[in-house]
């Protein structure tokens, strides 16, 4: 068997990557005679083929750590790059706000805090950007029910 193929099969059998497999070139005769996976397993047991245990930290993991370290800074006014609109698109912010408000409205309607007519009024106000946020909406609904 060719060395390359032996390395591939040994990697599969050992459950590691091909780069972790080390072949003892003094035992090339045994490796070339190995035909089956059982032969490769025997070579792994005897020491003709070894698996290196070295665990190096992957560069991907190192990059993640670097990014995490950077996340802790760069949020103050002087460090921001780009306008508010560049950092978060206004339409995206609008969509998030409207979806949250409409979800809250439907929740209030199912809890019977709103009648259909009131619901439609509040729904149109949400569309018209009448409310600043969800808290503002719930306060307005609460004031309406007190009257």
Could you characterize the architecture of this molecule?
This protein has 147 residues and is mostly helical. It folds into two domains: 1-73, 50s Ribosomal Protein L19e, Chain O, domain 1, CATH 1.10.1650.10; 84-146, Non-ribosomal Peptide Synthetase Peptidyl Carrier Protein, Chain A (Orthogonal Bundle), CATH 1.10.1200. Helix content is 62%, strand content 4%. The chain contains eight helices and two strands; from the N terminus they run H-E-H-H-E-H-H-H-H-H. A two-stranded antiparallel sheet has the order 1-2. Helix 1 crosses helix 3.
**Mean of the pLDDT scores?**
85
State the helical fraction. 55-70%
- Oligomeric state of the chains in view: single chain
The CATH architecture of the largest domain comes to Orthogonal Bundle
Strand runs, count: 2
| Highest-level CATH class of the largest domain | Mainly Alpha
The ordered H/E elements are HEHHEHHHHH
- Looking at the structure, the CATH topology of the largest domain is 50s Ribosomal Protein L19e, Chain O, domain 1
Q: Report the sheet with the most strands, covering strand number, pairing sense and barrel closure.
A: 2 strands, antiparallel
Kindly report the spatial arrangement of strands forming the biggest sheet: 1-2
Count of helix runs: 8
Low-confidence stretches: none
Determine Rg (CA atoms, Å).
Answer: 33 Å
Structural class: mainly alpha
First-residue to last-residue Cα separation: 89 Å
- Beta-strand portion reads under 5%
Count of individual domains? 2
Anisotropy-based shape:
elongated
């Amino acid at each position: 068997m060719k060395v390359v193929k032996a390395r591939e099969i040994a990697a599969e059998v050992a459950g590691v990557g091909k780069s972790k497999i080390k072949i003892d070139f003094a035992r090339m005769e045994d490796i070339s005679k190995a035909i089956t996976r059982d032969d490769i397993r025997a070579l792994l047991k005897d020491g003709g083929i070894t698996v290196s245990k070295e665990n190096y930290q992957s560069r991907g993991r190192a990059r993640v750590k670097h990014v995490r370290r950077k996340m802790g800074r760069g949020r103050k006014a002087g460090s921001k790059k780009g306008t508010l609109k560049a950092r978060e698109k206004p339409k995206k912010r609008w969509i998030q706000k409207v979806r949250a408000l409409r979800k809250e409205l439907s929740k209030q309607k199912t809890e019977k805090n709103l009648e259909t007519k009131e619901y439609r009024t509040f729904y149109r106000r949400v569309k018209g950007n009448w409310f600043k946020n969800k808290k503002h909406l719930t306060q307005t609904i609460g004031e309406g029910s007190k009257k």
